[in-house]
Amino acid sequence: MLHIGSAAPSFELPDARLEMIQLSSFRGKKNVVLYFYPKDGTPVCTREAIEFSDNEEEFSECDTVVMGVSRDDWMVHEEFCDKHGISVRLLSDTDCEVSRKYEVMTEYSGDGSVNNGNASSNDIGKGEASNNGGSHQSVRRCTFIIDKKGVLRHILHDMNPREHVDNVLGLVRQIHGH
């Protein structure tokens, strides 16, 4: 189970330009804000990506890079970025390998109930049919703040979408010493 103070799970994923991004490439250089979200184009996900992009300079001043992760493929990310002026990197986790490592997968049954009880209706995203008929999996909205040493410093669940980016920026500023 992931917890504050543990090493962030390593990964390599493609971004919207098909550039392969490795978490390890930031170690010793940058803090990382890694936010998981259900799907490009939904109202909350769009707002989140725009607000992170609008504040990218403030994150950069704190030696921090922001990356969003969803199950959308790189072409969907590219279109989403172009349409909304998104400048933060969006990574494609189409097989959910990284989402599983970060423990953000949620299973929904055919009746709409959440099997793990940790997600809200805003978290339901692109589903994946499973073998038990009618259920699907989705990525739960969650943000991880990883320091330059590759250590998880903050894990944020159930954030208020209107305050999310400001809260994350405040935590990053604390890590950076502002």
What does this structure look like?
With 178 residues, the chain is an alpha/beta fold. The protein has one domain (12-19, 27-176): Glutaredoxin. The protein has helices at residues 43-54, 56-61, 74-84, 97-101, 164-176, and strands at 12-14, 20-22, 31-36, 64-70, 89-92, 105-108, 136-139, 142-146, 152-157. It has a five-stranded mixed β-sheet with strand order 5-4-3-8-9. It has a two-stranded antiparallel ribbon with strand order 1-2. A two-stranded antiparallel sheet has the order 6-7. The longest helix is centred in the C-terminal third of the chain and has 13 residues, at 164-176. Mean pLDDT is 87; it is low at 116-132.
Helix-strand pattern, N to C? EEEHHEHEHEEEEH
Mean pLDDT: 87
Structural class: alpha/beta
Low-confidence stretches: 116-132
What's the CATH C level? Alpha Beta
Please give the share of residues in helix.
25-40%
Number of discrete helical segments: 5
Strand content: 15-25%
Major sheet summary line: 5 strands, mixed
Task: Give Rg in angstroms.
Answer: 16 Å
CATH topology description = Glutaredoxin
Shape: globular
How many domains? The number is: 1
Identify the quaternary structure here: single chain
Report the CATH architecture.
Answer: 3-Layer(aba) Sandwich
Work out the number of β strands.
Answer: 9
Strand order of the largest sheet: 5-4-3-8-9
Question: Distance between termini?
Answer: 30 Å
CATH homologous superfamily label: Glutaredoxin
